[in-house]
Amino acid sequence: MSAMNVKQQVNGLNEFLTTVYGTETRLSTLLTSLGFNSQQVELIRNQYLERAITSFLESLRERMVTGWDGERLHKIISRRFGLDGEPPDTLEALGQQFGLSRERIRQLEYKAIKKCTSKANQQFLRTSLHNIALKLIGDVTERPSPDGITVKLYKLAEIRAAADLTRADYEAKRAEILGKVQSELDALEAEYAPLLQASSEHTDSIIAEIKNDVLRHGTSVRTDSVQAVYAKGRISWDAKGLGQYAEAHPDIIEYRKQSEPTVSIRFVQKRA
Questions:
Q1: Contact at 8 Å (CB) between 245 and 254?
Q2: 3-state class of 92 per DSSP?
Q3: CB hemisphere CA count around 86 (13 angstroms)
Q4: DSSP result, 66-86
Q5: Sequence-distant (≥ 6) Cβ neighbours of residue 207 within 8 angstroms
């Protein structure tokens, strides 16, 4: 495969990964997020990029080619992003190849992307790339020594200890700041709590009075800011009893049921 095709694949794959993960994602940044250091990423990029991409795209194909239209979905994704190393196809061009409309190809592309963006498939792609990179690096470099790993373990312990100190310092200063204002907050609570409680009780009391008045009045009453909406009781019928009774009696009013009327309070948003 030519260098130009590999470049096209890399560009297409970076665009594809960005679409899958919903944020700017490149093959190199994904490798870094998987725990590979800059030297390892450069090794793959400079010497084993084509092998890594080929294996990764094969994993993608195996994941996508499920169900009756899996092969077609994979072909559409591959061609739309240029994952096969060729310039991407337009929706119109793919429509001609599959004998479908542009809109139908767009729908299938969306379906394919949605399939790839599921959490399970996102994790599958990360795991696949991780395993591929581990194998490539393992084939050409020596296994890490216990001493080297031990050094990193000590470094990890130092980083965690520093993070713990930073977190403890943050919590202490936060508590100090809260302590300074807590008394003011308590005083504010003590001052306003009785007023708010009295206001709530007053509101509930007058709402109850209004509902009783409107129930007795029998119709809705409105102002420009508040409405007391009267609703007649809902009428329902005992269908089973009505059916039995109607067989022998034309007069069915006995089975007519009416619930009690209700009133609801609505606050109207005033126009500016």
A1: yes
A2: helix
A3: 9
A4: -STTHHHHHHHHHHHHTTTSS
A5: 265
* DSSP three-state, residue 61: helix
Q: Token pair for residue 173? A: 């200063």
Q: Are 105 and 91 in contact (CB under 8 A)?
A: yes
Q: Which has the closest alpha carbon to 113: 90, 87, 81, 142? A: 81
Sign of the CA dihedral with 79 first, then 10, 85, and 128 last: negative
* pTM of the predicted model as reported, rounded to 2 decimal places: 0.62
CA distances from 152 to 143, 156, 158 (A): 15, 6, 10
Confidence of residue 64 (pLDDT cuts 50, 70, 90): confident
C-alpha span between 24 and 18 (Å, rounded): 5
- Residue 179: per-residue pLDDT: 86
The predicted-structure confidence for 151-167, as pLDDT tens digits, reads as follows: 888 888 888 889 889 99
pLDDT digits (tens, 9 = 90+) for 203-237: 999 998 998 988 888 889 988 888 898 988 877 76
Q: Of the candidates 230, 231, 234, which has an alpha carbon nearest to the alpha carbon of residue 259?
A: 234
Count the Cβ atoms, other than its own, within 10 Å of residue 145. 9
Q: What is the 3-state secondary structure (H, E, C) of 179-241?
A: HHHHHHHHHHHHHHHHHHHHHHHHHHHHHHHHHHHHHHHCCCEECCCEEEEEECCCEEECHHH
